[in-house]
Amino acid sequence: MTTTKFTAGDMFPTITLPTLGGDSVTLGQPQNGADWQLVVIYRGKHCPLCTRYLNALETYKAQFLALGVDVVAASADSQAQLAAHMPQLSVSFPIGHGLSIAQMQALGLYISHPRSEQETDHPFAEPGLFVINEKGQVQVVDISNGPFARPELEVLLSGLAFIRNPENDYPIRGTFA
User: Could you tell me the superkingdom of the organism this chain comes from (predicted)?
Assistant: First the structure.
């Protein structure tokens, strides 16, 4: 299978997903007065590591926002699966659901089939993390093919503080072609 991976500095695609509240969230379009956005793609309700990661992300949300970085998450789970997952989550950031295979492919994510019906009932994205800058470009990208390989949130926060500091004049890295 051929897949497209993001090149650092690429424009992030426009992907709008429904949320549980009947609203929608557009990935890569910051809200809450922020000019950057952290987009976390997670595997779904069936993944206890995802639940832990999303709950941990909530504890850093205010610090990300203080840097001007809004936080959103999304998965391929259905509305019913997200609703069933919410009692395990202690998060206040928007979570989109219904990420399609085409959208997962557009994001360059690894996609897995469920191992059984007990896991889930649809193909799902493996973890992905994108930081979108004020120009809509992918400033930071981390794509994994397994739930146990994700950026440490405290390290990510520290790195973004360094990048966002104008005195550091830190460019998008990894653009050598």
Answer: Bacteria
Nearest CA-CA partner of 74 in 7, 8, 128, 111: 128
Q: Quick: pLDDT tens for 13-72.
A: 999 999 998 999 999 999 999 999 999 999 999 999 999 999 999 999 999 999 999 999
Q: Is the dihedral of CA 62, 18, 96, 22 positive or negative?
A: positive
Domain count, the chain: 1
Q: What is the pTM of this model?
A: 0.95
Residue 31 lies in a domain: no
Tell me how far the alpha carbon of residue 90 is from its chain's centroid: 17
CA distance 56 to 60: 7
| Tokens at 139, concatenated | 């400033």
Neighbours of 27 (CB within 10 A): 24
Q: Residue 63: which domain range? A: 43-152
